[in-house]
Amino acid sequence: MSSAFTCLYCGKEKQQSESSLEHAIPQFMGGEYAPKIFQLPNVCKTCNNNLGLWVDASYAKSWFITNYLAEAARLLCTKSDDPGLPLRCMGRAQIPNLNVPDGHAAEHWIGPSGETVTWIRPHDERMDSYTGGNPIDTKKKPSVAYFFPVSESPEKHALGLRSFHRALDKRKARKILCAELRDTNGAAVNPKIWGFDSPTPDEETDRDVIRAAIHAGNIPVQLSVNTKFDQRFMCKLALGIGYSLFGEECLSHTTAAEARKGVWPASDGTKSAIRGTSTLFAGDTPFAKVAGYPGAVAIIVMKTGPSWSMCVSIDEKLPFIIELGPGSMASQHVNPEEGYALLLFPYLENCVELTMAALIAHRLEVMKHPALEQIDAIRGAAAQFDAQLLATSS
Ligand SMILES: [Zn+2]
After folding, report:
1. pLDDT digits (tens, 9 = 90+) for 39-49
2. What's the 47 CA to ligand 1 centre distance in angstroms?
3. How remote is the CA of residue 28 from the centroid of ligand 1, in Å?
4. Residues of 158-181 as b/e, b for ≥16 C-beta within 10 angstroms?
5. HSE (CB half, 13 Å, CA atoms) of 184?
6. Ligand 1 centroid to 349 CA: how many Å?
7. What is the pLDDT of residues 162-209, one digit of tens each?
8. What does the alpha-carbon distance between residue 146 and residue 223 come to, in Å, rounded to a whole number?
9. Cβ–Cβ contacts within 10 Å for residue 384, how many?
10. Residue 12 C-alpha to ligand 1 middle, in angstroms?
11. Average pLDDT over residues 260-278
């Protein structure tokens, strides 16, 4: 009775008891709403546990991806009682006289209408370039988030509040409101009703220190960037998507072996020879415009020259391109002439699967794709909502 399997990511033989279900497309990209073919049974627990934190999060929590995903969500937010938008990260805040305990960092975040969030959270040096720090630590270790709302309009106020809670509710964070809330009759409202904690005397001091810095109009921030934030992730996604679409055949080529080297770099420094162009070096390629979609995480698979390649972009930006294998590979999911496109809308908890040819036809308005017409309508409503929000500024 043989129940061993070869792990997709590390290539090692593993017992069935060591397998764990893995989404080839991670959650932050909207992977849980992707078609079933992207669920992988052949990933070992060691890979599943390690790669989420060191590979997926290195990409997802990089300053670039964090902020472009926030932009993408904004294009699809149609009303103030939507779930709230992702906050944008400005970087590590250097606020004079702010009490930041040892082993902690103060981070500066901005809400959809310019709300300010100062988050004093545990710092993990190994994840210096992760926005929000170590994502597992901040779920378990205490932190404090100070929220400075805007009050110019009820819509802005509501959206800001939702966005703050969306960002921090899954963290072990005390939430301090840094404004007095009044109802329409002018009576004071208890912040607890809005999900905030009562500040301790120390937190009141910190709140005043941050407020003074905001009023002075200058909070210096420091940004830590790892330029190789996407290298291992590109290889991991190439293996996951390649296997999901092309099956076992994908693994018999040297491309897969090179991708594995990229996921688990050798200690002797040998580099993966996989061909691709990483996020910060692909630049503003016209390809990302064609092979992307506004507000979407776009995964495009097409034949380029002698190979199958994958292009991944967010809101038509930050593309990376990586080889999946030789063009001779066949797939029951991919039309060799028309290519494959998966547009994920994590903010809408939705995805659209189509051919690359159908995507281009839709974009050129040659032939409209019904599911994308619906997305376009949401984007239109979101643009109106955004203009409304802007118009209500004092
Ligand atoms: Zn493994």
Report:
1. 999 999 999 99
2. 4
3. 21
4. bbbbbbbbbbbeebebbbbbbeeb
5. 2
6. 29
7. 999 999 999 999 999 999 877 778 888 888 988 999 999 999 999 999
8. 20
9. 11
10. 6
11. 89
Ligand 1 center to 53 CA (angstroms): 14
pLDDT single digits (tens) 335-375: 999 999 999 999 999 999 999 999 999 999 999 999 999 99
138 C-alpha to ligand 1 centroid (Å): 26
Cα–ligand 1 centroid distance for 241 (angstroms)? 16
Are 241 and 25 in contact by the 8 Å Cβ rule? The answer is yes
pLDDT at 25 over 50: yes
- Predicted pLDDT at 199: 95
From ligand 1's centre to the CA of 262, what distance in Å?
A: 13
- What is the DSSP annotation of 11-39? --EEEGGGEEEEESS-GGGTGGGS-GGGE
The token pair that represents 33 in the structure block: 């709403």
Please check the confidence at residue 2 and state whether its pLDDT lies above 60: no
58 to 26, 346, 365: CA distances (angstroms): 12, 18, 37
How far does the centroid of ligand 1 lie from the alpha carbon of residue 135, in Å?
Answer: 22
Q: How far is the CA of 268 from the centre of ligand 1 (A)?
A: 20
Distance 260 CA to ligand 1 centre (A): 10
Ligand 1: distance of its center to the CA of 104 in Å? 33
Q: Is 343 helix (H, G, I), strand (E, B) or coil?
A: strand
Polymer length of the chain: 394
Q: Where are the alpha helices (DSSP H) in the chain?
A: 45-51, 57-60, 63-74, 137-140, 154-168, 201-215, 231-246, 254-263, 279-282, 286-290, 356-363, 370-391
